Amino acid sequence: MSFISTSDLVKFDQNFATDVEAGLSLDPKKLSSKYFYDKKGDELFQAIMRMPEYYLTDCEYSILNRQKADILEAIGPSGFELIELGAGDGYKTKVLLEHFLSREVPFVYRPVDISQNVLEVLRNDLKNRWPDLAVRPLKGDYFAMLERLQSEQGQRKVVLFLGANIGNYTRQEALRFLENLHKQLDPGDQLLIGFDLKKDPSVILNAYNDPAGITAAFNLNLLTRINRELGGHFDLEEFSHWETYQPITGEAKSYLISRKEQEVEIEAIGKTFHFGAWEAIDVELSLKYSPFEIEALARAAGFQVVEHFYDDRSYFLDSLWEVK
Ligand code: AVI
Questions:
Q1: Is the CB of 206 under 6 A from ligand 1?
Q2: Domains with residue ranges and CATH for the chain
């Protein structure tokens, strides 16, 4: 939905407006990074994943590519439904799909995404590559889809949650998310989950503070989205991107900083928000974990760790968990 200020009919996403109003009324101000991903945001995130500084994608790709045989051995040879939460373009997952097909493993790939478009593009791509691969996409919210699968009483489930997406949740949110996931699974079901690990802080800072300014453009695009969809009046020149990394907590945090004292009207909300000079909006958390913290999280959510798969530099970890 877009904001059309010239029309009598002003359409906009009410949830987005409500969240923006609540977040900009907080002290300190906060906007959710889940709103980064409009069409432009998706393109910028693709560009981030191709940046040399953003090591996460290459690390996880190399884990899946080099250790696909070990991963399959740990999953076991009996048939399963491979459910991927937030499938995207499936770039990394295709490595596993190809390997499982070559080993003639009986499995069905079930990508879950809220975007019908993402699922259609992925399904067509996979059909062209591997006509024999069984693909049954699920369009909707992760938990609604898992609930549906549970009621279908199908084969055992192997869930993929890759890309360090768990890092965009606080520790408490991550635990709640994993506890909910555990409730939707049965004994013997598994989860392969990607975590970005604590490492040299300068490596982490560079990944979110690239000299080309792609991450800055990705974060600032949130203000462009508010301008377009909610009739916001943010002047992008007057905000800048700022990144921090706290090596004890593992929190990489992105902020948008107001470069001067200013008032910004958002028409769809019917309010003007005040920004002090150098006031920050908290826009994203990318949490980094230690292997010890990952094991504690698995146990707290009710899972048993089966095996850890690291890249060569131990920058990233795909961890296989099982419901007992
Ligand atoms: C999607 N998520 C895991 C990315 C991350 O690393 O937190 C999003 C991102 N933000 C800036 N760069 C990448």
A1: no
A2: 6-52+213-287 (no CATH), 67-197+289-323 (3.40.50.150)
